[in-house]
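User: Hi! I'm working on a homework problem where we have to compare a predicted structure to a textbook description. Could you give me the structure for the chain below?
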Amino acid sequence: QVQLVESGGGLVQPGGSLRLACTASGSFVSTYAMGWYRQAPGTQREFVATVTSTGTTNYADSVKGRFTSSRNNAEKTLYLQMNALKPEDTAVYYCYAQRTPYNYWGQGTQVTVSS
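Assistant: Happy to help. Predicted structure tokens:
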């Protein structure tokens, strides 16, 4: 069992930055792939970024070059550094941890990009 808690969301102006954190508790967290999805009102949840257990990253095209995800296995924490934010980045951001057959989600944190 893995529990995930996101933090760091908030209101930011276009062009600004935010850093989200996802703190995990449970066993063998370092063996899970972890990452981020987001969901804007009236839309489906969409993939943002993933970091494998070995540190390989992958990003959605919409955030490449602007967002960076990293993990600190000793602290059981996943990060999402978001730069050059746009209004279309506004969404609830969810952290996940996945290792077949297990899939865990956090409760989400709101990110609003608006002037």
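For your comparison, note the following. The CA atoms of residues 48 and 63 lie 7 Å apart. The chain has no helices and eleven strands. Good luck with the assignment!
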